[in-house]
Amino acid sequence: MSRPRLRHVALVVQDAAAAAAFYRETLQMEEFHQDPDGSRFMTDGYINLALIQHRLDGDVPTGFNHFGFEVPDVDSVADRMTQRGVARPVLRGGDRPFAEYRAIDPEGNWFDLSSHGFLPPGTAP
């Protein structure tokens, strides 16, 4: 891989289980991960779709949330970002096997950076 590739899209949904069933049954996506909060992670084998469970006590509305890029080297991308006056990406917490860093573009849109991709571990594109 010589340049970043868009590999991940995340939506905040009211019912992650129902949304996952829709994508599984109508578009034949595979569910590969479920968070304790009920969020579901789907893949078509190339791009993954995060269906983030909406929380009534949260501050994030339903709809589009963020996207993610697989990059050959997070540090070099982070250096280019800071040279453009954008905040350096920060390490994300949690135990998911993807999305190591959270970044923000000049317009305030969130995106993730990962050097190992967003598909389930052991899955080749």
Automatic annotation (TrEMBL):
Domain VOC: 5-116
InterPro entries hit by this protein: Glyas_Bleomycin-R_OHBP_Dase, Glyas_Fos-R_dOase_dom, VOC_core
Pfam entry (one): Glyoxalase
Coiled-coil spans in chain: none
Gene3D superfamilies, alphabetized: 2,3-Dihydroxybiphenyl 1,2-Dioxygenase, domain 1
The name this protein goes by in its record: VOC family protein
